[in-house]
Each structure stands twice: as structure tokens, then as C-alpha cells.
Specification:
Elements (H helix, E strand, L loop, with lengths): L1 H12 L3 H8 L3 H9 L6 H11 L3 H5 E2 L2 E2 L1
Antiparallel strand pairs: 1-2
Helix pairs in contact: 2-3
Length: 68
């Protein structure tokens, strides 16, 4: 699930949510919603997250192997 993968990435890279939001061009509040699981990224944002973090696109858009 995206919120777990983003949180793990932030911890591993010692990056703040604010820094990641700035690099992605999104608001801190939207980043908070992604991290809490209240929102899912659009396909375009998921591609940006994948490019920046290396988190596979399928992990950002799908839950446990099925479309969410």
C-alpha cells in the first residue's frame, strides 16, 4: 500500500514529508493524505513518485496485486 511504501522510503532516506512533497510539486496536506492512506496518487503522480523514489509503480497503484 502506498502509505507504507512512502513512509518506509522517507525513513530510509532520512527525508521529511515536506521535502518529498516539494520535490513532487504537491502540497504538504496532500502528502499527508497519501502517507495516511486517505488518498491515492493519480497515475501521473505515481509515475513521479516512482521516478524519484524507485518505488515500483505497481506498489503505488495496486493493493496486494489487485486493482484498488
Amino acid at each position: 500500500m502506498i502509505h507504507k511504501t512512502i513512509n518506509e522510503f522517507l525513513m530510509h532516506k532520512h527525508m521529511s514529508p515536506k521535502q518529498l512533497a516539494a520535490k513532487l510539486g504537491i502540497s504538504e496536506s496532500y502528502m499527508s493524505m497519501l502517507r495516511s492512506g486517505r488518498r491515492r496518487p493519480s497515475p501521473e503522480l505515481a509515475r513521479k513518485i516512482e521516478a524519484l523514489t524507485g518505488i515500483p509503480l505497481k506498489n503505488l497503484l495496486f493493493k496486494t496485486g489487485r486493482a484498488a
